[in-house]
């Protein structure tokens, strides 16, 4: 019996017949399971990180560098052009128009000619976009751990979140380690590092609402640039991380007792919108941190932001913990108005796979009151970015969700306040466009844009907020 070494019984009762180089499993007659112990393949290391950083607003010295990264600016905006020369040339006949490069392989596609993918940025656009996504992964990693470390088991249980739910949040934090590692490897030595943060929440429900909102602009911020990347191979990796983020967003909605996905399409938004919403929650970043090119718009407050903690979520006045994300505050919600205290189906909002809200958080025709800040304020890491806009006074609210941008006029514009009316737009018949956690943007022009040229709005944007429409 050349090569025979030993026959051992594994924990499941299967015998392993081990030869010189490998083991063969021989099931024990009474037990059908076969269990191998495969050699552990070595895994690439995680990027260096801290599970929970220090927290609170930035109190350090005045930054020496301020403002977004910039170089020569060639023009104030990108002119709109007609479609490219080949946009209409492919004939949509359902037939093949060119020889197949290989069996079962249609001609065309990008990255299909056999050249080896190299997962590196190919342009400033790529680098700045991935660096923004990395800033987002870092805050999520910290935020998910921070909530678990900050609130007690009793506080989580009071919000209806069990030990299993908390483990899911812990697992989400681990996912962020992976995402931060991936993007750091793509960006190389100057990749932005983990920072310290400051969150606008003081209890579990505010925390879950903030997570739900933060992951919304994390997800949508990437959808906005993914298909514009020069490096499609990098886009492939990013897609595979952002689809995980999308699941996190939905899970936080479920933790909040919201209808998990009240839309048919998830929206994509420009990088500067995501950066404007993210930067206020970063207190400080390490010395020599790589800076970003993106704009920080002034703060916009939705004074009657719908409050998902209420039975009648739309009946509110200034119940947020601040502008930008406009996260819910539970401070003034009395026990009888609190949907967590109801057992009624359609009213109860404890964590669940799905919840009906028989009284919707918002509705077409709702009057929405707005207030905004002036530009020129220090914000973001080390207060080293400055809010700005090229707009003097906004005239429109843009409701940006699903595949649509719908403008409504701002009324009674004075003293940095105005109101507007929630529109009644459908993406397709049967799919009201305004629902879920979406973007409400103040502009000076009702510029027509579609999902792939939405960043053309930027020179006309005054400020960006998240609206909790459902
Ligand atoms: C955006 O794209 C649409 C076509 O999808 C076009 O009609 C519109 O003019 C474009 N907007 C700008 C500002 O480029
Ligand atoms: C194959 O496609 C890549 C882009 O994906 C391009 O850079 C390369 O030049 C192409 N190679 C050949 C042989 O056509
Ligand atoms: C930001 O502030 C911290 C704390 O004062 C400091 O250690 C760090 O070097 C600063 N970062 C930058 C990029 O200036
Ligand atoms: C920051 O950059 C300066 C100048 O390149 C260098 O002297 C210093 O060591 C760097 N600091 C860190 C923490 O990397
Ligand atoms: C909202 O209310 C808080 C007090 O709860 C107040 O500090 C803040 O200024 C108000 N915000 C606006 C925009 O009115
Ligand atoms: C949930 O809401 C839908 C749509 O309004 C309604 O058709 C359905 O009956 C509701 N289900 C329950 C259990 O309330
Ligand atoms: C959002 O969708 C939910 C679920 O279909 C629905 O109950 C609610 O009325 C919708 N809200 C708005 C603002 O359309
Ligand atoms: C919104 O428009 C649809 C038709 O597209 C109509 O059926 C519905 O009644 C309208 N809702 C409101 C509140 O006006
Ligand atoms: C919403 O987007 C869809 C898909 O692009 C488009 O067909 C529809 O016309 C848009 N609706 C409005 C009101 O702009």
List descriptors.
470 residues, single chain, 24% helix, binds 2-acetamido-2-deoxy-beta-D-glucopyranose, disordered N terminus, alpha+beta, 4-stranded antiparallel β-sheet
Our measurement of the CA-to-CA distance between the termini, rounded to an integer number of angstroms, reads 71 Å
Order of helices and strands: EEEHHHEHHHEEEEEEEEEEE
Low-confidence stretches: 1-21
Shape: globular
State mean pLDDT (0 to 100 scale). Answer: 93
Radius of gyration: 26 Å
**What ions, cofactors and ligands are bound?**
2-acetamido-2-deoxy-beta-D-glucopyranose
Write down the domain tally: 1
Strand elements, count = 15
Number of helices: 6
Largest sheet, in brief, is: 4 strands, antiparallel
Q: How do the strands line up in the largest sheet?
A: 6-7-13-12
Q: Which structural class do you get from the secondary structure elements?
A: alpha+beta
Classify the beta-strand content into a percent band.
5-15%
Percentage of residues assigned to helices: 10-25%
Region (Disordered): 38-68
Protein name: Ferritin-like domain-containing protein
Organism: Cercophora scortea
Biased composition (Low complexity): 56-67
């Amino acid at each position: 019996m050349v090569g025979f070494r030993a026959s051992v019984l594994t924990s499941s009762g299967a015998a392993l017949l081990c030869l010189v180089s490998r083991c063969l499993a021989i099931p024990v007659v009474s037990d059908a399971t076969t269990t191998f112990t495969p050699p552990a393949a070595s895994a690439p290391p995680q990027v260096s990180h801290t599970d929970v950083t220090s927290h609170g607003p930035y109190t350090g010295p005045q930054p020496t560098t301020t403002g977004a990264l910039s170089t020569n600016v060639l023009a104030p905006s990108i002119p709109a052009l007609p479609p490219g020369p080949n946009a209409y040339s492919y004939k949509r006949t359902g037939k093949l128009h060119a020889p197949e490069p290989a069996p079962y392989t249609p001609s065309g596609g990008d990255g299909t000619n056999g050249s080896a993918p190299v997962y590196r940025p190919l342009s400033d656009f790529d680098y700045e976009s991935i660096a923004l996504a990395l800033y987002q992964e870092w805050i999520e990693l910290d935020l998910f751990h921070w909530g678990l470390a900050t609130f007690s088991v009793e506080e989580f249980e009071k919000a209806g979140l069990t030990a299993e739910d908390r483990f899911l949040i812990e697992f989400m934090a681990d996912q962020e380690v992976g995402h931060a590692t991936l993007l750091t490897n793509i960006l190389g030595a100057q990749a932005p590092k983990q920072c310290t943060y400051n969150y606008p929440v003081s209890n579990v429900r505010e925390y879950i609402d903030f997570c739900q909102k933060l992951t919304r602009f994390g997800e949508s911020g990437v959808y906005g640039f993914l298909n514009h990347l020069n490096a499609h191979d990098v886009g492939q990796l990013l897609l595979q991380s952002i689809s995980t983020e999308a699941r996190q967003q939905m899970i936080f909605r479920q933790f909040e007792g919201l209808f998990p996905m009240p839309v048919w399409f998830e929206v994509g938004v420009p990088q500067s919108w995501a950066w404007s919403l993210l930067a206020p929650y970063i207190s400080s970043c390490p010395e020599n941190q790589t800076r970003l090119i993106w704009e920080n718009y002034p703060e916009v407050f939705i004074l009657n932001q719908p409050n998902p903690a209420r039975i009648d979520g739309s009946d509110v006045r200034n119940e947020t913990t601040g502008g930008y994300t406009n996260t819910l505050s539970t401070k003034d919600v009395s026990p009888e108005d609190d949907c967590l205290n109801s057992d009624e189906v359609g009213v109860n909002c404890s964590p669940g796979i799905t919840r009906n809200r028989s009284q919707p958080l918002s509705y077409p025709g709702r009057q929405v009151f707005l207030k905004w800040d002036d530009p020129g304020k220090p914000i973001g890491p080390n207060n080293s970015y400055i809010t700005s806009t090229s707009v003097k006074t906004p005239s429109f609210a843009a409701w940006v969700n699903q595949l649509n941008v719908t403008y409504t006029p701002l009324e009674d514009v004075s003293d940095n306040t105005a109101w507007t009316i929630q529109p009644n737009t459908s993406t397709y018949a049967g799919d009201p466009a305004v629902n879920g956690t979406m973007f409400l943007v103040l502009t000076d022009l009702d510029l027509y844009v579609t999902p792939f040229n939405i960043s053309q709005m930027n020179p006309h944007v005054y400020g960006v907020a998240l609206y909790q429409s459902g």
